[in-house]
Write a structure and sequence with these properties.
The complex is a heterodimer of chains A (420) and B (283).
Chain A (H helix, E strand, L loop, with lengths): L1 H6 L11 H40 L5 H6 L1 H7 L10 H16 L3 H11 L3 H12 L7 H8 L6 H10 L6 H6 L2 E3 L5 E3 L7 H32 L2 H16 L2 H12 L4 H8 L15 H24 L5 H8 L4 H12 L1 H16 L3 H6 L7 H10 L4 H25 L9
Antiparallel strand pairs in A: 1-2
Helix pairs in contact in A: 4-5, 5-7, 6-7, 11-12, 11-15, 11-18, 12-15, 13-15, 15-18, 16-17, 18-21, 20-21
Chain B lengths: L8 H31 L11 H4 L9 H8 L1 H32 L7 H13 L2 H14 L6 H25 L4 H8 L4 H30 L2 H6 L7 H10 L5 H30 L6
The chains are: A mainly alpha (420), B mainly alpha (283).
Chain lengths: 420, 283
């Protein structure tokens, strides 16, 4: 529209304003209106969701404890080069900070923080704080080393100096099973302490397995739904939509009921003499249970996009292939499947993104071997209270999810997604 | 796709085995949900069919788990909480979301893609991260462990569904209808209320239903943000399943299945009505 007007640029409105200016003005007004409609929601989501999520992942690099609770030590250590033990001024600062921290009852935070990096530090800090507050006068260096010989260890001081920075990479490093050694170099953790890398790997492998299973199960029924007459397919569609609308916890519960050793499926197998009563199968509270339950829960997310793509494929294409001499298998593989690739892509990405961040189902039916990375984040949030590590793990998980989401956006576009 | 009469033996075998495969997959989808319904009437505290149940002996069935559910103060409070939180957050999410969708579907909207991805993000970010983030946020503003906090948290989770469904409805909206109405002499208010709104309402309602079920079914954020007083049904179930799973859970599950059937029916009726209105329904 803009173009047609600008060609006759001389035109003016009745009150003498050039039409172009008047149009621009009204366009700007419309733009403002549109933005005003979106603004309240945008503000709400940004404040109550985006910023909190960013904050949560930032905890993975924030390092406020030593920095804020031991300000004197932090400052005194600035000039220290880390070759030999620091001089008296640092020890004086240490006594000052420990005494103050004990009085303010926040020295425990420093103790926990340092303990993540070097086990035993909790005792060193709390014990020394108790004794340091009783010290009358300097010089403090010898007295502190007598209180705890850790204070005569250069490695302890390097650790404190490293953790006195306001930001740290140590959580992120820990989240991929590395740690800093005494010299501050990054080294792999001992074999038996490596848990996160294998957990991320397991999460990816299980999500992939679930996605593949979903494709295999969804393809036949989506094809059936797309090719049946509408009245019949609408009826069958209910069988897909009902699970979709049923509570997640209900669906998880029902798998516990079905699969547990005293459950329905084992009873049926015993009754049919496929297994004997002592050989009941352990199908739940392990990896198998998680995969079965999650495949069931996520299957509708695969069926629906596949169905909507298949619905648009005219049946005449297959007939044409057949009449041109292709056998049914060839025509299906060479003609039909390529046309559904976008549907497979959309469904797979959706299922993969959802399963990679799953928490509830693995927590309830996963036992030990079926836990995913989300469960570890929850553990650090609620039990170990190591929020920094939770933040770092969350950050890595979020990055993985966002990469796949960007892919999803490329393949389908979020605004084209249909539901129900 | 009925089987043609000229089909050979091989095709017939394939046709029937394909149907059987599909039936099995449908059974996998729906079977587990239906199986808990009879089990919730079990007189024994077992999670499997007793011999009495299999022989359809009335003594094998009872309503005791339902009685237990309705007699339990905790469950009754949680069901009240669930409805309260879900309805409140649905109203908030629907009104804010519809408003935003109206803005987003205007052709003049600047930065549409960016804003859309921000509004959709609660659906994309893994729930455990959202829950942890919201926990810190609502604690810092002293709203953790309050109804308001839980409602606002659920509102954020429900918004993407409202925005997606309503923008989808608006994008398929035929703008010549409003022009036609205006051309026939209706002023802009009449056009909005008499022409546009009736056609957009189904999208708004289905968005609202999605927001409702999102909140009604949500547990991860509730674990972090809700206190004891605000326990919802899913939260109560979560605790029940983790500690000692009692058959009362099956009774609750059956009730929840009934609720989802109800919601599904409403949604289906709306869909048909709107197809008729737009003249899309098959003859």
């Amino acid at each position: 529209m803009v173009n047609t007007y600008s060609k006759v640029g001389e035109m003016t409105t009745s009150d003498g304003v050039p039409l172009k200016v008047s149009l621009q003005r009204s366009q700007r007004k419309l733009k403002l209106w549109a933005f005003l409609l979106v603004a309240p929601l945008l503000l709400f989501i940004t404040v109550s969701f985006i910023i909190p999520v960013v904050n949560m992942t930032l905890r993975g690099v924030e390092n406020p404890q030593v920095h804020t609770i031991m300000p004197n030590v932090t400052e005194a250590l600035q000039a220290w080069e880390g070759k030999e033990l620091p001089d008296e001024s640092v020890y004086e600062a240490l006594v000052k900070d420990l005494t103050l921290g004990r009085k303010n009852k926040n020295i425990g935070k420093v103790a926990s923080r340092l303990n993540y990096e070097r086990s035993g530090m909790r005792r060193v800090i709390t014990g020394s704080a108790r004794k340091a507050s009783k010290l009358k006068e300097g010089p403090y260096k010898e007295q502190m080393i007598k209180i705890n010989k850790a204070w005569g260890d250069v490695a302890v001081w390097s650790l404190i100096k490293r953790e006195s920075m306001p930001f740290t990479s140590s959580y992120l490093v820990a989240a991929v099973d590395y740690k800093f050694n005494d010299k501050g170099e990054m080294v792999a953790k001992a074999e038996n302490k490596q848990i996160y890398k294998s957990l991320f790997w397991r999460t990816l492998v299980m999500s992939f397995t679930i996605t593949v299973l979903c494709i295999l199960l969804a393809y036949p029924i989506a094809y059936l739904l797309a090719t049946l007459p509408l009245a019949k397919s609408n009826l069958l569609m209910i069988l897909v939509l009902l699970p979709f609308w049923t509570s997640l916890l209900v669906r998880t519960t029902t798998w516990i009921v079905l699969l547990q050793t005293e459950g329905v499926l084992n009873d049926v197998l015993v009754w049919m003499n496929i297994i004997d009563n002592d050989g009941r199968l352990q199908m739940i509270f392990n990896k198998t249970g998680t995969i079965i339950a999650m495949t069931h829960i996520l299957l509708p997310f695969m069926v629906l996009p596949l169905y909507s793509v298949m619905k648009t494929i005219p049946p005449s294409y297959m007939r044409a292939a057949l009449s041109l001499g292709a056998n049914p298998v060839t025509s299906f593989v060479r003609v039909y499947i390529p046309m559904t690739v976008t549907g497979i892509g959309a469904g797979s990405l959706l299922v993969f993104i959802l399963s990679i961040g799953y928490y509830i189902t693995p927590a309830l039916v996963g036992g030990q071997s079926g836990l995913l990375i989300s469960n570890m984040i929850a553990y650090h949030m609620q039990n170990s209270l190591n929020w920094g590590l939770a933040g770092a793990l969350g950050f890595i998980l979020l990055v993985i999810v966002l990469v796949f989401y960007a892919l999803f956006n490329k393949v389908v576009g979020i605004d084209k997604m249909k539901m129900g | 796709m009925a089987i043609p009469i000229y089909a050979g033996k091989l095709e017939r075998t394939w046709y029937y085995s394909y149907r059987i495969i599909c039936a099995l997959i449908f059974l996998f989808l729906i079977g587990p949900i239906l199986i808990i319904v009879p089990l919730s009437f079990n007189v024994q505290p077992y999670f499997t069919f007793t011999p009495e149940m299999l022989s359809f002996d009335p003594d094998g069935y009872s309503l005791r788990w339902y009685e237990e559910f309705f007699a339990s103060e905790e469950w009754m409070r949680s069901i009240k909480n669930s409805f309260f939180v879900a309805i409140a957050s649905t109203i908030l999410a629907t009104s804010l979301g519809t408003l935003a969708a109206l803005g987003l579907s205007r052709p003049e909207m600047p930065y549409r893609t960016l804003i859309m991805s921000i509004l959709i993000s609660p659906m994309i970010v893994p729930l455990i991260i959202s829950a942890a983030g919201m926990f810190f946020f609502y604690s810092s503003v002293n709203l953790a462990g309050t109804f308001l906090g839980l409602i606002l948290a659920h509102t954020a989770l429900g918004i993407p569904f409202v925005v997606i469904t309503v923008t989808a409805t608006l994008s398929s909206f035929d703008h010549s209808l409003t022009r036609a109405a205006a051309g026939l002499g209706a002023n802009s208010r009449v056009v909005f209320f008499k022409v546009m709104l009736p056609l957009v309402t189904p999208g708004v309602i289905s968005g609202a239903l999605f927001a409702f079920i999102t909140s009604f079914d949500e547990v991860v954020v509730a674990i972090f943000v809700a206190g004891v007083e605000e326990r919802t049904i899913p939260l109560q179930m979560w605790g029940g399943i983790r500690e000692q799973i009692s058959p009362t859970i099956l009774a609750v599950a059956t009730i929840l299945v009934a609720i989802s059937i109800l919601l599904l029916t409403v949604l289906e009726l709306i869909r048909r009505r709107s197809e008729r209105q737009r003249g899309l329904a098959p003859a």
